[in-house]
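Input for the complex:
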Amino acid sequence: MDLAAKVLKGDVRTAARLITLLEDESPQAIGEIEKLYTHTGQAFIIGVTGAPGVGKSTLVDNLIGAFRKQNMTVGVIAIDPTSALTGGALLGDRIRMQRHAADAAVFIRSLATRGWSGGLAKAAIGAVHVMDAMGKDIIFLETVGSGQVEIDIVKAADTTLLVLAPGSGDEIQTMKAGILESADVIAINKADTEGADRLLSEIESMFSMKALNSNDRIPPVVLTEAVNDKGTDELASALREHRDYLKSSGGLPLRRRARAKLELQEIVEGHIKDMLYNLDGSDFLEKLIDELETGKTSPHRAALEIISRLAGTINQGKGKAKNGF
Ligand SMILES: Nc1nc2c(ncn2[C@@H]2O[C@H](COP(=O)(O)OP(=O)(O)OP(=O)(O)O)[C@@H](O)[C@H]2O)c(=O)[nH]1
Ligand SMILES: [Mg+2]
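Predicted:
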């Protein structure tokens, strides 16, 4: 039996293996994900983002408990952007979510890519497909909201949960632009610590000013104490309400379209990067560089020549990238 067929039957070990192949950007993974693609689209995907250490994993662990009480099956993909540098797995996240490790209906996976940062988004979306095809009802995608790639990943979710915590001073100011705007639900975690109320009123006044200028939906803000499992049910309800809102407002297909677009862009970029990489050191490229040096061509003209050459390669069917998909 192929990997995809086993994943469709819910086989966790095979799913884990397929995600490893995705991380390694293995060509075998391409075919398997292709077979799974038509079986996806059922899961509800929740992106969880926020600064390092605000309590994302502890909150997700609590939310798993809340959704399991309703008999929903859950997948978790925890992404660590730093692991792309160290190549290491994210032990911290798995330890925080240990409570559900023995539950067969819960599948938790940390993700690290070793290649260029774009590979991270590609592997993350691939891992979502795997968990979706396995039949998980809810999929959490946890990522630190620091770089553009991580923000893109979270934007590709159905619902984005932004986690804030008091204590980091200019928390809101330092949030990467775009994150606050893409939040559908906000949790102010570590409500047991100094400054949570102040953070709450800052956020509320910010959104009430915004509300005067637009008809946008104001995200609900929930106070949580993840270490004490407090506020979990309220947070789970806020997430469910957003899902219902997306369904009733027609916003869900738009989000899914945005996700399909992101995935498509990642794939195209992957192919093009592979082709450029293959050109490196070739006579064609060296000759162009010679011409640049001697002023026979301009960078813009040389770039267009490269592009038309790549297009020609694709037409001849030689452009099949080794790793891209
Ligand atoms: N006081 C307090 N500490 C908390 C709370 N929630 C989480 N913590 C602690 O904050 C630390 C970080 O928690 P994590 O859940 O790992 O945070 P994270 O956002 O997933 O961290 P990264 O994945 O490393 O970005 C841990 O030591 C938690 O025990 C809370 O509600 N109150
Ligand atoms: Mg974490």
